[in-house]
Design a protein that fits this description.
WD40/YVTN_repeat-like_dom_sf, WD40_repeat_dom_sf, about 0% helix, Methylamine Dehydrogenase, Chain H, about 50% strand, 19 strands
């Protein structure tokens, strides 16, 4: 993500839009009031990813690898960050399942599956590394393995994972087994999944639509 570029995610009912950028400010806008900013949070590090995991709970990731949770739309929404997990690398992508109690978090080469317990604490359930068979690049002549996006598929037992240099993979979330699905000649910088979770649009040097079923 280039400096100054914002990431935006709309809440499911379309009323609120969350935006984050390298200015280190997380904002929530009201779509029914000409997208007026109704809440903001200043952080020490740029935000790099965000997702609504329910109508009232916003999860954001930072350049420092912090996974944080906020309640911006509740009355007198708190601006205090609640760090629910800390990774050693930046977080380029976060996705929540339909219930909101599980997250797919990309950090470096891995997709991390986090689950929420009954006491609302979060724990790491699984690390997924589709590229483990090729190992780490021995030198800078080979491109590094970087997961740029992970998305639940229809029944949420599988996910699609895009990599900056190594294509698109389909992963079984229970077993961790993966299979190569598609690979571009260019890097995959940004991607998004369709509402029915059957197609993935990836942005390389051109927009490519890939079927996942």
């Amino acid at each position: 993500m280039e400096k100054g570029e914002a990431r935006k995610r709309a809440r499911e009912n379309g009323r609120y839009l969350a935006s984050a950028s390298y200015d280190k400010v997380l904002r929530v806008h009201n779509g029914r009031q000409n997208f007026r900013t109704i809440w903001s949070h200043q952080h020490s590090s740029p935000f790099t990813a965000l997702v609504w995991r329910s109508n009232d709970v916003l999860v954001a990731g930072s350049l420092q690898g912090e996974l944080m949770q906020f309640y911006p739309t509740k009355m007198f929404g708190s601006k205090t960050s609640n760090v629910i997990y800390k990774f050693s690398s930046p977080i380029p992508s976060i996705e929540a399942n339909s219930v909101g109690n599980q997250l797919l978090v990309c950090s470096s080469r891995t997709v991390n599956v986090l689950t929420e317990a009954e006491d609302h604490s979060w724990s790491l359930q699984r690390r997924i590394d589709s590229m483990s068979s090729i190992g780490e690049p021995a030198n800078f002549e080979e491109p590094p393995v970087i997961a740029t996006g992970a998305y639940y598929l229809q029944d949420e037992s599988q996910c699609a994972v895009s990599y900056l240099w190594h294509g698109l993979w389909k992963v079984d979330l229970e077993t961790g087994e993966s299979e190569w699905n598609w690979g571009p000649d260019q890097q995959i910088g940004t991607s998004t999944i369709s509402p029915d979770c059957r197609s993935l649009a990836t942005l390389t040097s051109a927009l490519v639509l890939t079927g996942l079923t």
